[in-house]
Amino acid sequence: MNSSNPGFLDIIFQRKSVRHFVEKPVSKDDLMIMVKAGMAAPSARNEQPWAFIVLTDRYMLNQLGEGLPYAKMLYFAGAAFIVCGDTSIIIEEGKAGLWQQDCAAATENILLAAESLNLGAVWTAVHPYIKRESHVRNILHLPDHIIPFCVIPVGYPTGEDVPKDKFDSRKIHWGKW
Amino acid sequence: MNSSNPGFLDIIFQRKSVRHFVEKPVSKDDLMIMVKAGMAAPSARNEQPWAFIVLTDRYMLNQLGEGLPYAKMLYFAGAAFIVCGDTSIIIEEGKAGLWQQDCAAATENILLAAESLNLGAVWTAVHPYIKRESHVRNILHLPDHIIPFCVIPVGYPTGEDVPKDKFDSRKIHWGKW
User: Fold this and answer.
1) Three-class SS of residue B22?
2) What residues of chain A, 15 to 44, have a C-beta less than 8 Å from chain B?
3) Rg (chain B; Cα; Å)
């Protein structure tokens, strides 16, 4: 390992989907660090076509969870981010797929920042599932130009979720396919 | 800042799109670390629908650059990753958009790992641009089930590329839209 920052690589490899949380609030400072990390992601043509909703209210978190079959951990999470695509920012029509790539990069940054703060988080997909999008849109009264991309429940982990080793040398092709 | 790993957050905020490289090869060890970081990304239903091609051959890098209008830095890069979607892995039809999200998360991990290794890298989009996809497919003789998602030139930075501060408080919505 010729790493100038091994601690950083640890975070990448230690990150896991955390679905079990202890009952403890997440500080606004930590939430701000995570959302800043999201905004530090790259985006196509530097459009930054994203917006972030941050929820900590128990009632709102529960409401959100009710319509999201794979985000029931919202009932126990201290907070959640809703990463959204802002279609009013996207400059070039017909290249619309790229906002999803940008939001995915921002989401990964948030997940890694959570890990570095000893928090746990999990990426639950919303887009392109129409029913999930409608639910989030309704609960949060989103304007039409805002597309909910994913919901990230976040909180202090119980410790039962552990990282997976997903290394698979067959997926690496050196020099050619 | 209540960070348990401030070095990690530095990497997130210091990462930039590096488009200018000095002529110096990238070690296979470092390339392996970066591709491992890519594979440590989350994916929908843990499908890991990705594959990674790693190029270091000057002729191949140049060939790839010839057909990619925004990836001319390949002429100077020490190496490149081609992140691909493997459609043979995707279990559920009709949810095909998610492989792009997964590949984007893997791409962001590679970019961050590059930054942590004092290397520089830049995400150049291939999918969903048909002409770019055809070019990469032809140069690399990709099978039909493999979709080239992006090309990441990587190398030692000249230092002229610097991070952007993209923080914008108007994009954060606390508690509600």
Assistant:
1) strand
2) 15, 17, 27, 29-30, 32-33, 35-37, 39-42, 44
3) 17
Contact A86, A146 (CB under 8 A): yes
Q: Tell me the Cα Rg of chain A.
A: 17
Q: Which residues pair with A148 in a beta bridge?
A: A84
Q: What ipTM score was computed for the predicted complex, to two decimals?
A: 0.95
Q: Where are the domains of chain A?
A: 38-157
> Helices (DSSP H) in B87-159: which residue ranges?
97-116, 130-140
- B169 contact A CB<8A: no
Q: What confidence tens digit (pLDDT) does each residue in B53-107 have?
A: 999 999 999 999 999 999 999 999 999 999 999 998 877 655 567 999 999 999 9
What class is the A38-157 domain?
alpha beta
Q: Hey, which residues 86-125 in chain B have their CB within 8 Å of chain A? A: 86, 95, 97-98, 100-102, 104-105, 107-109, 111-113, 116-118, 123, 125
The pTM for the full model equals: 0.96
For residue B15, give both structure tokens: 């990462």
Instruction: Give the CA angle between residues B85, B89, B95 to the nearest 5°.
Output: 75
Distances from the Cα of A20 to the Cαs of A33, A158, B25, B142, in angstroms?
22, 6, 44, 41
List Cβ neighbours of A15 (8 Å cut-off, separation of 6 or more). Answer: A111, A112, A115, A163, B40, B42
pLDDT digits (tens, 9 = 90+) for A15-61: 999 999 999 999 999 999 999 999 999 999 999 999 999 999 999 99
Structure tokens at A170: 């067959």
Fold held by B19-159: NADH Oxidase (3.40.109)
